[in-house]
Specification:
mainly beta; single chain; 7-stranded mixed β-sheet; 50% strand; 4-stranded antiparallel β-sheet; globular
């Protein structure tokens, strides 16, 4: 049984940082493309970043230079480091294995002063 469990969300002031984690079980993050998505209130879910098995990363334009996706193979955990956060980054962030349609339940990020 595959489980993806996100953590690390919270309330942060504009300009602040957070690191989200996605702990996986039942699926190896090192051999699969994984992604972070987010869904803001009243908006569609959007792709934020992806990480392939070969270590290639992609980012949506709005987060380039601010967010970094990475993984720890030994811990089978994926991360999203978010710097210089903006109010428009407020959303529920989801970990996903897109090839298989596996999703976590999400972690809420609120950027507000």
């Amino acid at each position: 049984q595959v489980q993806l469990v996100e953590s690390g969300g919270g309330l942060v002031q504009p300009g602040g940082s957070l690191r989200l984690s996605c702990a996986a079980s039942g699926i190896s993050l090192s051999i699969n493309t994984m992604g972070w998505y987010r869904q803001a209130p009243g908006k569609q879910r959007e792709l934020v970043a992806t990480l392939t098995s070969g270590g290639i990363t992609t980012y949506t334009d709005s987060v380039k230079g601010r967010f970094t996706i990475s993984r720890d193979n030994a811990k089978n955990t994926m991360y999203l480091r978010m710097n210089s956060l903006k109010p428009e980054d407020t959303a529920v962030y989801y970990c996903c294995a897109p090839a298989f349609g596996y999703w976590g339940r999400g972690t809420q990020v609120i950027v507000s002063s």
